[in-house]
Amino acid sequence: MKPRHSTLLLLVLLAQTSFAGPFDISSISVAQHKADDYIRAAISLQAMGKEVACQALLVSDTRQSQTDDRLFVLCRMLFTQRGTNEFQRPYRMRVCIIGETADWRLYPVEIVDGVPFYLEGNGGGGDGGRMRDTGEEYLRYCMTNCDWNTYTFHEVTAKQKGEALMKLLLSGQAKRPLNDFQKAFLSRQIE
Question: Which residues contact 86 (CB under 8 A, 6 or more apart)?
Answer without folding.
Answer: none
